[in-house]
């Protein structure tokens, strides 16, 4: 059919979304030429602009192809505008132009199979080259210094292309066509090793020196994509213990890097879903089960994840890592390059200075790192990948704001003090930052301020509102108020657990004016609307307000914040609440609660009676700590957040058979439904006295707690006429609990929302704060 003469023969097409650094312009070039179209394509800010002329059918075919795009792209919008085109007869890639910027850069991408094959092929030009990449892989966000995304605005700007690389860059048939980080041994970054031997080594000799040091039990600081790692043999107990001692990391799990899927299979037993996640271009750390039948001579060190049944592993995601692991021939620990509690090192001089007491050698290179990016951590929970920590490979990919939020002013949300991350809303998107660390740790607040300035400059975001956690003593609250005062901006305090639920709602696209949901917010602690410490809550939420309709019955928090680090304190509080002091003392006398033996129980009980430094707390996280203490898997003092709960989950997974759900009571207190754990404690003590295996008691605890909260959520949903339950809070990183909750709720006919792209814990809190502040702005709150 001939074209309608009334239709324009040319048009301007603008493509939005993740279309920078993914080979989008080369994709458009090839598609347009195949369709016989004339025109140009260029970067315009963080969008791609196409000016095209030709038959309507061909232009329609181009637009249809744009929605798929190249493999790494995520197209959000395609808008078409009538226009004239008076250019030449062909189709070309035009120079980039400035434009508005929001979040159109993709995260760093793991090395693709083609580049991996190339570095291992002796006849290839890039054989053994540690910085090989193409349009489908390599560094992106970690090297970007500005928009639009061109080599001149990356940390590759100082490496001029050699003639051979320039030919590849300019050749549309080459997979390096307009690949901005393109490099080769003649013109790209180079390796350098600094170690105990006299004089530094460079290039292949640097790689050989690092591998030799690792094989002899040394610790090497390795410069990666988003910062330095501390690497050592994962199969050597002595070296792993040495790394822990030097770094001051006594028990927190250490991540392990495998060369490839074959090495992974030799040491671990990942599920099919976990193997798929490990192979994702984001290359996250994924907790997987290890193999008990690995050869004793080459088995993984027992010191990698003390007390846990899962090991965090990742596959080599850069050519440097792949080449190093190929030389070593064994899995390597890849722990964040920092002293415990400090931000990861990204600068070469700082690495030599700050890691001098930890590393024996440094494998470095001369490509600068634009920003610090810790490895992302993801797990398969309830059949889907879930983000536990958002970092390299995930940040800064945006989340689309749900329908109805477009008119809201831009928001800066400050997140929490633990697992700190901020969120910027801008042009219909929520940009959740990468993981910063805990604000109480040295240097993290400075790192957060620097990252916030970086994001705001890079993405051109100017907030009108600053959202903060309502707790006035949080560092994030104080920092948010200072930033608001500096900019003359409004501050919007947001309740902690409301933000948890709202983050889950936003990720699942619930509209701004949609109906409320029942929210289960289970975590360690957060300030509640009544001024007490919450952490086991059943809420009815929309984006503007939250109302508590149920909770875990509160107990004292003896010693305040100290009780969050010493699980035996919570065991005392729970046993006293369930059995009375005499009953708790009897359990200690019978040897059923050895964690309390020899402890200053009278002193803590006096604190509780007097209400001195023993506030009431409804925390699910502290209940997990108490049970871990009863079953003797909790340390006297935890060395990292969640240690006791993670050990309890690992214990429960080892049950010899499915356990019956432990009994929990339900009562009403001042009109509020309360889950009473007293029956569970009595049953657990009876089981322990009867010799029931601790793993079965732990499994019964998980099943019983899930049943109690699922039943209360169903009750709330019926009473409120709602059909959706949002699961949120750090406890949802516990796969046993989350899956049991989701299964029971679905069986009751309820729609279940569980976070996936944003962490369920405090790492995703800023997203919830942002959408709550935005929703309130919409109504002139």
UniProtKB/TrEMBL annotation:
Domain YrdC-like residues, every copy: 204-393
Keyword flag Ligase: yes
Pathway in which the depicted protein is active: Protein modification; [NiFe] hydrogenase maturation
Record keyword Acetylation present: no
InterPro entries recorded: Acylphosphatase-like_dom, Acylphosphatase-like_dom_sf, ATPase_NBD, Carbamoyltrans_HypF-like, Carbamoyltransferase_HypF, DHBP_synth_RibB-like_a/b_dom, HypF_C, HypF_C_2
UniProt-listed Enzyme Commission number(s): 6.2.-.-
Record-annotated active site: 25, 43
Any GO molecular function: ligase activity
Reactions listed under catalytic activity: an acyl phosphate + H2O = a carboxylate + phosphate + H(+); C-terminal L-cysteinyl-[HypE protein] + carbamoyl phosphate + ATP + H2O = C-terminal S-carboxamide-L-cysteinyl-[HypE protein] + AMP + phosphate + diphosphate + H(+)
SUPFAM superfamilies found in the cross-reference section: Actin-like ATPase domain, Acylphosphatase/BLUF domain-like, YrdC/RibB
Superkingdom of origin organism: Bacteria
Acylphosphatase-like domain segment(s): 10-95
BP-aspect Gene Ontology terms: protein maturation
UniProt entry keywords in alphabetical sequence: Hydrolase, Ligase, Metal-binding, Transferase, Zinc, Zinc-finger
Pfam families: Acylphosphatase, HypF_C, HypF_C_2, Sua5_yciO_yrdC, zf-HYPF
PANTHER family tied to this protein: CARBAMOYLTRANSFERASE, CARBAMOYLTRANSFERASE HYPF
Family per similarity comment: Belongs to the carbamoyltransferase HypF family.
Annotated function: Involved in the maturation of [NiFe] hydrogenases. Along with HypE, it catalyzes the synthesis of the CN ligands of the active site iron of [NiFe]-hydrogenases. HypF functions as a carbamoyl transferase using carbamoylphosphate as a substrate and transferring the carboxamido moiety in an ATP-dependent reaction to the thiolate of the C-terminal cysteine of HypE yielding a protein-S-carboxamide.
Protein name: Carbamoyltransferase HypF
């Amino acid at each position: 059919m001939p074209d309608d003469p009334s239709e324009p023969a040319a048009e301007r097409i603008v493509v939005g979304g993740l279309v920078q650094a993914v080979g989008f312009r080369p994709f458009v070039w090839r598609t347009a030429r195949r369709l016989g179209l004339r025109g140009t394509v260029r970067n315009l800010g963080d969008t791609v602009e196409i000016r095209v002329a030709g038959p309507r059918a061909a232009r329609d075919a181009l637009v249809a192809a744009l929605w798929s795009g190249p493999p790494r792209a995520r197209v959000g919008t395609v808008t078409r505008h009538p226009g004239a085109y008076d250019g030449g007869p062909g189709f070309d890639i035009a120079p980039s132009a400035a434009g508005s910027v929001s979040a159109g850069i993709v995260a760093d991408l793991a090395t693709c199979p083609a580049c991996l094959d190339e570095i291992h092929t002796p006849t290839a030009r890039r054989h053994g080259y540690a910085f090989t990449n193409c349009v489908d892989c390599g560094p992106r966000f970690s090297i970007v210094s500005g928009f639009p995304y061109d080599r001149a605005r990356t940390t590759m700007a100082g490496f001029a292309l050699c003639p051979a690389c320039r030919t590849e860059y300019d050749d549309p048939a080459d997979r390096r066509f307009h690949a901005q980080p393109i490099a080769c041994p003649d013109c790209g970054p180079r390796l350098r090793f600094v170690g105990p031997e006299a004089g530094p080594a460079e290039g292949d000799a640097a790689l050989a020196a690092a591998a030799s040091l690792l094989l002899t039990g040394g610790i090497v600081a390795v410069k990666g994509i988003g910062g330095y790692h501390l690497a050592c043999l994962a199969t050597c107990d002595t070296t792993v213990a040495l790394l822990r001692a030097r770094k001051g990391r006594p028990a927190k799990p250490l991540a392990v890097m495998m060369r490839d899927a074959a090495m992974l299979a030799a040491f671990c037993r990942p599920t099919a879903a976990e193997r798929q996640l490990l192979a994702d271009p984001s290359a996250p750390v994924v907790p997987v089960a290890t193999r008990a039948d690995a050869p004793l001579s080459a088995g993984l060190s027992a010191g990698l994840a003390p007390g846990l049944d899962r090991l965090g592993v990742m596959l080599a995601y850069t050519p440097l890592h792949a080449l190093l692991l190929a030389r070593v021939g064994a899995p390597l620990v890849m722990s964040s390059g920092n002293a415990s509690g400090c931000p990861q090192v990204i600068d070469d001089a700082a690495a030599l200075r700050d890691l001098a007491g930890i590393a024996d050698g440094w494998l470095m290179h001369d490509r600068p790192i634009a920003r610090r990016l810790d490895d992302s951590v993801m797990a398969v929970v309830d059949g889907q990948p879930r983000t536990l920590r958002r970092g390299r490979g995930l940040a800064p990919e945006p989340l689309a704001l749900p329908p109805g939020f477009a008119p809201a002013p831009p928001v800066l949300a400050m997140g929490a003090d633990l697992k700190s991350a901020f969120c910027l809303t801008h042009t219909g998107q929520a940009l959740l930052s990468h993981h910063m660390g805990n604000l109480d740790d040295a240097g993290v607040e400075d790192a957060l301020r620097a990252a916030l300035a970086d994001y705001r400059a890079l993405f051109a975001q100017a907030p009108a509102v600053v959202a903060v956690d309502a707790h006035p003593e949080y560092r994030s609250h104080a920092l948010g108020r200072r930033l608001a005062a500096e900019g003359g901006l409004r501050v919007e305090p947001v309740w902690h657990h409301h933000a948890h639920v709202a983050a889950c709602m936003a990720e699942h696209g619930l509209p701004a004016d949609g109906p409320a949901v029942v929210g289960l917010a289970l975590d360690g602690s957060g300030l509640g609307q009544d001024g007490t410490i919450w952490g086991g809550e059943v809420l009815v939420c929309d984006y503007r307000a939250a109302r508590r309709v149920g909770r875990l019955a509160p107990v004292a928090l003896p010693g305040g914040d100290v009780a969050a680090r010493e699980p035996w304190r919570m065991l005392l509080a729970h046993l006293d609440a369930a059995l009375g002091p005499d009953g708790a003392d009897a359990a200690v006398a019978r040897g059923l609660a050895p964690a309390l033996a020899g402890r200053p129980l009278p002193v803590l009980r006096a604190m509780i009676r007097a209400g001195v430094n023993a506030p009431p707390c409804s925390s699910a996280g502290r209940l997990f700590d108490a049970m871990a203490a009863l079953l003797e898997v909790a340390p006297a003092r935890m060395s990292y957040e969640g240690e006791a709960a993670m050990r309890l989950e690992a214990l429960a997974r080892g049950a010899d058979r499915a356990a019956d759900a432990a009994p929990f009571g339900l009562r009403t207190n001042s009109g509020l439904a309360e889950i009473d754990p007293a029956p569970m404690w009595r049953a657990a003590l009876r089981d322990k006295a009867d010799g029931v295996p601790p793993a079965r008691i732990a499994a019964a605890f998980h099943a019983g707690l899930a049943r109690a909260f699922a039943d209360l959520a169903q009750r709330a949903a019926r009473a409120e006429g709602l059909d959706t339950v949002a699961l949120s809070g750090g406890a949802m990183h516990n796969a046993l609990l989350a899956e049991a909750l989701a299964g029971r709720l679905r069986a009751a006919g309820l729609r279940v929302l569980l976070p996936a792209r944003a962490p369920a814990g405090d790492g995703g809190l800023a997203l919830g704060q942002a959408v709550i502040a935005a929703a309130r702005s919409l109504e002139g709150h």
